[in-house]
Design goal:
163 residues, alpha/beta, Rossmann fold, globular
Length: 163
């Protein structure tokens, strides 16, 4: 199989809730579109507290209830090297945007970083809310936002890259 032509990295704070979900949902959409092999997908956190750990069990349970398996993922920290190895870096909130941008001074790399919700077809505040300290409904809300936005993102990338 040829090398993937596009690479997409999802970023949040801990890499155990929002970005693993975005990775899992997006991977599934890509598979359904028969585009696996064309798009390389990963996720990372701007913080390193959870490195090596699987996603939060509450996020895994919510994803599994929608048929998305996150269990094989392990948290990794965002570095400038990782950033440089992806074409599109989609971050979940304004803090992630600031922290990701702070890793590089290369304007070409800075241009690769965007808010994930810039692709959300529905109006919102531009951020995926952090569900970590809240209840179950917060995880469900994150799933709704991520699923809707990931679909739109895939449509955008297919157009942009002619896939
Ligand atoms: P995430 O959520 O950024 O969506 O993975 C969080 C996970 C862990 C922490 C904060 C947010 N934490 O403070 O450990």
């Amino acid at each position: 199989m040829p090398e993937p032509s596009i690479s997409v990295l999802f970023v949040c704070l801990g890499n155990i809730c929002r970005s693993p979900l975005a990775e899992g949902v997006f991977r599934q959409l890509v598979r359904e579109a028969h585009l696996d092999g064309h798009i390389r997908i990963a996720s990372a956190g701007t913080g390193d507290w959870h490195v090596g750990r699987p996603p939060d069990p509450r996020m895994c349970a919510t994803a599994a209830s929608h048929g998305v398996d996150l269990s094989q993922q392990r948290a990794q920290v965002l570095t400038s090297g990782l950033l440089a190895s992806f074409d599109h870096v989609l971050v979940m909130d304004a803090d992630n945007l600031r922290d990701a941008r702070a890793l590089t001074r290369d304007p070409e790399l800075v241009r690769r970083i965007a808010l994930f919700r810039d692709f959300d077809p529905e109006p919102g505040d531009g951020h995926v809310p952090d569900p970590y300290y809240g209840g179950r409904e917060g995880f469900e809300q994150v799933f709704t936002i991520v699923e809707r936005t990931a679909r739109a993102l895939l449509g955008h990338l297919r157009q942009l890259h002619g896939l």
